[in-house]
Design goal:
The protein is of the alpha/beta class and about 400 residues long. About 45% of the residues lie in helices and about 15% in strands.
Amino acid sequence: MTSLHEATRRTEEQLRHLGSKKWSTPPGVIGSTVAEMDFGIADEVGEALIARVRNGSVGYLPATEQLVMRQACADWHRDVYGWDVPVEMVRPLPDVLRGLEVAIEHFSRPGSDVVLLTPAHVPFLSVPGQLGRSVREVPMLRDSLGEWRLDLDGIDAALAGGGGLVVFCNPHNPIGKVYLLEEMAALAEVVERHGARVFSDEIHAPLVFGGHRHVPYASVSSTAAGHTITATSASKGWNLSGLKCAQLILSNESDAERWRDVAFLSEHGAGLLGAVATTAAYNRGRPWLAEVLDYLDGNRTLLSGLLAEHLPGVEYVPPHGTYLAWLDCAALGLGERPADFFLEHARVAVNDGATCGAAGQGYVRLNLATPRPILAASVERMGQALATRR
């Protein structure tokens, strides 16, 4: 297996040869769209997977392995976040998007709208419509320092106008915000006033930088626990997205009772190898995660300097968490879809902010989880393309 040090020295050609979706780009195009890391996986995770494959037992997820995984998730939440979750309240899912589907179909008022805090993870804008629900976008606000904050009045109005489920993402993809307890307590009051629900996506929770702390939304108060469905996973923190294993955390007895009626189809699809990898990550993957966070911290700082040198018109607030950089390109004069310009003229594939909701227009999302020479090359190419245009 490859150490983190070795992984951070990989070239574009080597990464493309490995065959990740992130690098399924045309030759010569740097891939920076898909939320995957270019750093491989922890040795502890790899060893657990190899042992299971050599054992030859890779069928459906058995109850014993499922329980071990659920316990590892509960232990992680208790030890790292101070949230004591009973193991019976942790349930397997194939992925967090399935958790959103479940929250809409089984834990929100029938026919009610989905309230989305934008900019948002791209699939969150389309999944509700596929389930017959309308989306009400509530753009995030920015203060004088460029930091993001909730528009509580906007959320209140959206819920009063027919919203029944707020999709809350913490750490927030794509803006990288890690919410304070006080902010979440204020949100819980608004939601409870309308008898609404919250789907809390906490998939990036392990990826929080120094000076910030992840607090699970449902742990904020008994009020929050009473209206929340939480979805999380080791997939982002330990680079395991393809193994299809996430966790739904229930935080009240009413939801637990409802879950018993919908558990089979909702849990179906969670993979055995994903559970094995998840258990190894939560139980033994902390040293690797610490190394990754240290490297990512260096990358988010490096990006500030790169932008100042090559793209001085771009506004950037280093993320509190995630490995995603949210870049305001409005001052560059590239039109409504700056990502198209960078793909065509810089040969760098980034996410266009408009796909994250109307509030994202003029922005792009750049993946920081890549070797530093590639991060530098991405920004340099983008700057050169802009200079040539001028």
